[in-house]
Amino acid sequence: EAKSSGTGEIRLFEIWMEQAATLRSQLEHELHQAIENKEFRVFYQIQVDSNLAPTGVEALVRWQHPTRGLLAPSEFIGFAESSGMIVEIGLQVLETACRQITQWQDAPQTRELVVAVNVSAKQLYAPSFVDQLKQVLRTTRANPACLEIEITESQLIVDMQVAIQTMQAIRAMGVRISLDDFGTGFSSLSHLRQLPLDQLKIDQAFVRDLSLNPNDDAIVRTIIELGNTLKLDVIAEGVETWAQHERLAQMGCERYQGYLFGRPCSVEDLNLAPGTVRHERAGLHYQTAYSL
Ligand code: C2E
Ligand code: MG
Ligand code: MG
Ligand code: MG
User: Fold this and answer.
1) This prediction's pTM
2) Residue 213 C-alpha to ligand 4 middle, in angstroms?
3) Ligand 1 centre and the CA of 64: distance in Å?
4) Atom 7 of ligand 1, nearest CA residue
5) Tens digits of per-residue pLDDT, 66-100?
6) What ipTM describes this predicted complex?
């Protein structure tokens, strides 16, 4: 009952609200500054195929904050999304990723690498997004086939028809589309069939508990079969152990991303060279480029 909460508690709540508002406006100010000063950096995390050969990378934004150091997306993406600033930040990430594609497309060993870029709902539903994408591809001269847009399942629910139209326009440019965090949203099978997609990305929550939780085994197996039926690539994210990798391979998964193959890092630290470290497990021999 309202009367039973003392005025002290209410005062405490007010102080907390004031502090939260102060922090929010400080973050807003700093983010505006960050956009202007281009303080965002793009890290890349490797993705590999069945032979553990790199097929591409996911671009993951970091904020090089002037006093707080390198900040992970969890520190600012939520606010950037709710304030709309993600549109500008996302554009900077897209430009950086496309410039990276242009650098890689000149060398034979890196020519076919696909760079996946996360796009939030605010970006996807902005009427200017398709034109911006075209513009960035034109000015950077990046090969569209080397760009992949990652959209989460939950974004589609906002307005399925607009999402589908935008996705069709993206694919018409030759850019790939991957459905991120798949299995955590609510897209029905009939929706999935309508979507212009190239890849399903199994959410890391299902990968984490593989072989521990029989339900997760069943979900992962179902997603892989669904991908095969719909002729989509399937990639597993959050792969941390060889046991998880082995289970996924048995179930027919052919692409992997996770700490096992490399953490997100700067392009300078990225190891794309063909294998040197040998891993042996249960009679399987892998040639990998990664120190285990
Ligand atoms: P996401 O797109 O699902 O990206 C995967 C996240 O899982 C990344 O976190 C990655 O570092 C982490 N991860 C990769 N492998 C493993 C693993 O083996 N184990 C574990 N525990 N985690 C792993 P990160 O970089 O902190 O990004 C978090 C989220 O922030 C992303 O989730 C994405 O939703 C968002 N994000 C990142 N960059 C951008 C961006 O440029 N634009 C937008 N709109 N969102 C972004
Ligand atoms: Mg992603
Ligand atoms: Mg994901
Ligand atoms: Mg995620």
Assistant:
1) 0.91
2) 20
3) 16
4) 238
5) 999 999 999 999 999 999 999 999 999 999 999 99
6) 0.98
Q: Measuring from atom 20 of ligand 1, which residue has the nearest CA?
A: 238
Distance 47 CA to ligand 3 centre (A): 13
Ligand nearest to the CA of 244: 1
**Secondary structure (H, E, C), the chain:** CHHHCCHHHHHHHHHHHHHHHHHHHHHHHHHHHHHHHCCEEEEEEEEEECCCCEEEEEEEEEEEECCCEEECHHHCHHHHHHHCCHHHHHHHHHHHHHHHHHHHCCCCCCCCCEEEEECCHHHHCCCCHHHHHHHHHHHHCCCHHHEEEEEEHHHHCCCHHHHHHHHHHHHHCCCEEEEEEECCCCCCHHHHHHCCCCEEEECHHHHHCCCCCHHHHHHHHHHHHHHHHCCCEEEECCCCCHHHHHHHHHCCCCEEECCCCCCCECHHHCCCCCCCEEEEECCEEEEECCCC
Please, are residues 137 and 167 in contact by the beta-carbon 8 Å criterion? no
Ligand 1 atom nearest to CA at 119? 44
Pocket test for ligand 1, best of 46, 118, 154, 290 (most atoms within 8 A of CB): 118
